[in-house]
UniProtKB/TrEMBL annotation:
It is found in: Membrane. PROSITE patterns: CADHERIN_1 (PS00232), CADHERIN_2 (PS50268). Residues 1-96, 105-206, 206-310, 311-402, 403-507, 508-623, 624-701 form the Cadherin domain. This is PCD23 protein. GO terms for cellular component: cell-cell junction; plasma membrane. The lineage of its organism: Eukaryota, Metazoa, Chordata, Craniata, Vertebrata. One of its GO terms (biological process) is homophilic cell adhesion via plasma membrane adhesion molecules. It is a single-pass membrane protein. It comes from the Eukaryota. Keywords: Calcium, Cell adhesion, Disulfide bond, EGF-like domain, Glycoprotein, Membrane, Repeat, Signal, Transmembrane, Transmembrane helix. SMART domains: CA (SM00112). InterPro entries: Cadherin-domain_protein, Cadherin-like_dom, Cadherin-like_sf, Cadherin_CS.
């Protein structure tokens, strides 16, 4: 096909036996062939190429050559068919449809996965000239992760892909024909960009520190930490959000899930919690989403916001009095919930009452005395700075002291045995057994008095008689109970015995029982009585009478009068009726009478008066109802019980016995009334048409 135009291809010759000298022939190509690639010399019959051939366009030509012989008359035409085969020349290079292709392949495909099929074309017609073999070359360094089949052009994975290592590969794919002569072989190529598509095969990875610090006085909203996690995946697969899974139960922190900024949501207190362990999750946006966990430790740094606190709210101890200065008292200890230098403590005693008598070691907290202590001057010290309660223990350095140097007392001669006449009291400034006082009598009182050893109460041991002995003198001793060298004090006691009103007035009878008619007149004396007093003085024997109970309605009163006799005057006492009696209201009365003398200590006695009120017929009977309405059928048989009437009389005895009678309305004798019970019965047949209603008047007597 590379034969050049105007060159003679061949020459048509007339057969030898047909040749003749000077034979005149005319050669032409039939016009209906429509082909302009060839021309023929009309006289010589030489065939030559008129324009270039293209095997790929036409590989064969069939020409009809017309030979006109002018030696005959008329001229004769003969046709010759000329078959021309065009031999292929390797004049076309293989070519791809595109110069550059971009191919995407997911990174998780297995080895051997078909990625792409390259298809190159070759315009040559010969088999070898158009037979294509493929080859592959990768730009850059490293091992090519792809293979291409030399015959089929299939691109497959040769190794596992990892987008996070290689995002894309630029390949040069070459297609070479297989011309026999190696020097004649042609090739075509294209650039292929293999983009490795991301698969969410990587979890986020934290790049920020797992340790953060924050001051405990940080305000709400303070930036504590910026959590950062990277995900080598791309797109949503590499977009990371942040979450707190645990450790934030009381929500002291808040985490921005987009930025990873961790801020305080509450005020912190290192002394309550000095460290937080937050389980933080970084989660990508792939499907499925892949998480990564990290324990974020947040250390709360100390601020000096805590006051020292003593291990005890109250320290209590004791020190004996009269000890030399420098005596160890107690060691106090305090703690400070702050940390570091903020928790280092120094001790001191604040100014206050008696503080100068003590000194504290500023480092150890040991307290010692700086002076000798006197319990009687100050028994308890309350040291400021903390609640230190110090008690000074007693030594027996004081005698008991009575309140008086001498006791004088007057007592009545009628005191009962065992009566307390005087309470002696001695105080001892010492404490405990040293200040506990016991009492005793020194002198003999002939069994008349004794003293309670614990209370100091002087009591009588037998009856006193002023006429026998009017005065007693003796000494009492107060001793402390110290087990070592007890101390004591003595005091004198004078007791004067006084005469008293010894006898109480006595009624001649303890119980008076009498009866009075209820219609007795007001002012009438119902009882005459008297009482005797065996004392001798006028005051102790003058008796007054009164009613002390049972007379709430003032029905009775007591009147006294003096009756003169031949030899003396006699006091007459009468119980007089002051108001009208009513047996139906009160059938009896129980009075308690009091007789009391005018002694300095008045004495008295009582008597009981039982009064029975006798009945008088002063109340009429009263029916239970002013009217009785009874409905009966006219067919009720004779003898039937109709009703029963009843009346009540508030009198008593025979005065209360009632008789019943029908005084009107029973003229025809239809009814009978029992005079004792008030029961009414039917005595005659009833007839509604004759009498519809009976009105009976019944009398209770």
């Amino acid at each position: 096909e590379n034969f050049k135009p105007a060159q003679v291809l061949d020459s048509l010759k007339w057969p030898d036996n047909h040749l003749a000298t000077n034979r005149k022939l005319h050669f032409s190509i039939a016009k209906d062939n429509g082909d302009v690639h060839f021309e023929i010399h009309s006289l010589t019959g030489e065939l030559f190429l008129s324009k270039e051939l293209d095997y790929e366009t036409a590989s064969h030509f069939l020409l009809q050559v017309i030979i006109k012989d002018y030696n005959n008359s008329p001229p004769q035409n003969k046709s010759v068919f000329l078959s021309i085969d065009v031999e292929d020349e390797n004049d076309h290079s293989p070519y791809f449809q595109d110069d550059f292709v971009v191919i995407g392949i997911e990174e998780n495909v297995p080895v051997g996965t078909l990625v792409y099929i390259f298809n190159a074309k070759d315009g040559d017609g010969g088999f070898l000239n158009s037979k294509i073999r493929y080859s592959l070359e990768m730009s850059g360094v490293g091992e090519n992760p792809f293979l291409i089949h030399s015959l089929y052009g299939t691109l497959t994975t040769a190794f596992p892909l990892d987008r996070e290592i290689i995002h894309s590969v630029i390949l040069t794919v070459s297609a070479t024909d297989q011309a026999i002569n190696l020097t004649d072989r042609r090739l075509g190529s294209l650039a292929a960009k293999i983009v490795i598509l991301d698969i969410n095969d990587n979890s986020p990875s934290f790049t920020s520190s797992p340790l953060a610090y924050v001051m405990e006085d940080a305000e709400i909203g303070f930036l504590v930490h910026c959590i950062v996690a990277k995900d080598p995946d791309e797109g949503k697969n590499g977009q990371v959000t942040y979450h707190i899974l645990s450790g934030n139960e009381n929500k002291p922190f808040v985490l921005d899930k987009i930025t990873g900024v961790l801020t305080t949501a509450q005020l912190l207190d290192r002394e309550i919690q000095e460290c937080y362990s937050l389980m933080v999750m970084a989660l990508d946006d792939g499907s499925p989403a892949l998480p990564t966990m990290q324990v974020l430790t947040i250390v709360v740094l100390d601020v000096n916001d805590e006051s020292p606190i003593f291990l005890k709210q109250l320290y209590e101890t004791a020190v004996r009095e009269n000890q030399d200065p420098g005596k160890f008292v107690i060691k106090v200890e305090a703690v400070d919930r702050d940390a570091g230098l903020n928790s280092l403590l120094r001790y001191e005693i604040l100014p206050g009452s008696g503080y100068e008598k003590f000194r504290i070691n500023s480092d150890s907290g040991e307290v010692i005395t700086t002076a000798s202590l006197d319990r009687e001057a100050q028994e308890v010290f309350s040291i400021k700075g903390n609640s230190l309660h110090l008690t000074v223990l007693d030594e027996n350095d004081h005698n008991p002291l009575f309140a008086k140097t001498q006791y004088q007392i007057s007592v009545r001669e009628d005191l009962e045995e065992g009566s307390a006449i005087l309470d002696l009291f001695a105080s001892d400034e010492d404490d405990g057994l040293n200040g506990q006082v016991m009492y005793s009598l020194v002198d003999d009182t002939f069994g008349t008095f004794a003293i309670d050893s614990l209370t100091g109460s002087v009591i009588t041991m037998k009856a006193l008689d002023q006429e026998t002995k009017s005065q007693y003198m003796f000494r009492a001793v107060a001793s402390d109970c110290s087990t070592h060298f007890p101390r004591s004090t003595t005091v004198s006691v004078v007791v004067h015995v006084e005469d008293v009103n010894n006898y109480a007035p006595q009624f001649t009878r303890v119980l008076y029982d009498l009866s009075v008619n209820e219609d007795a007149l007001v002012g009438e004396s119902v009882l005459t009585l008297s009482a005797m007093d065996y004392d001798w003085t006028h005051e102790n024997t003058y008796v007054e009478y009164s009613i002390i109970s049972g007379n709430s309605d003032n029905l009775f009163s007591i009147e006294t009068s003096v009756v003169k006799s031949e030899t003396s005057y006699k006091l007459v006492v009468s119980l007089v009726l002051s108001n009208t009696l009513d047996r139906e209201t009160a059938p009896s009365h129980r009075l308690v009478l009091l007789a009391s003398d005018h002694g300095t200590s008045s004495l008295s006695s009582t008597a009981t008066v039982l009064i029975t009120v006798l009945d008088v017929n002063d109340n009429p009977p009263v029916f239970s109802s002013p009217e009785y309405h009874i409905h009966v059928k006219e067919s009720i048989p004779v003898g039937s019980h109709i009703t029963e009437v009843s009346a009540n009389d508030y009198n008593a005895g025979t005065n209360a016995e009632i008789t019943y009678a029908i005084i009107s309305g029973n003229e025809r004798g239809h009814f009978r009334l029992d005079e004792k019970t008030g029961s009414m019965d039917l005595m005659k047949t009833l007839d509604y048409e004759v009498t519809m209603k009976f009105t009976l008047v019944i009398q209770a007597t």
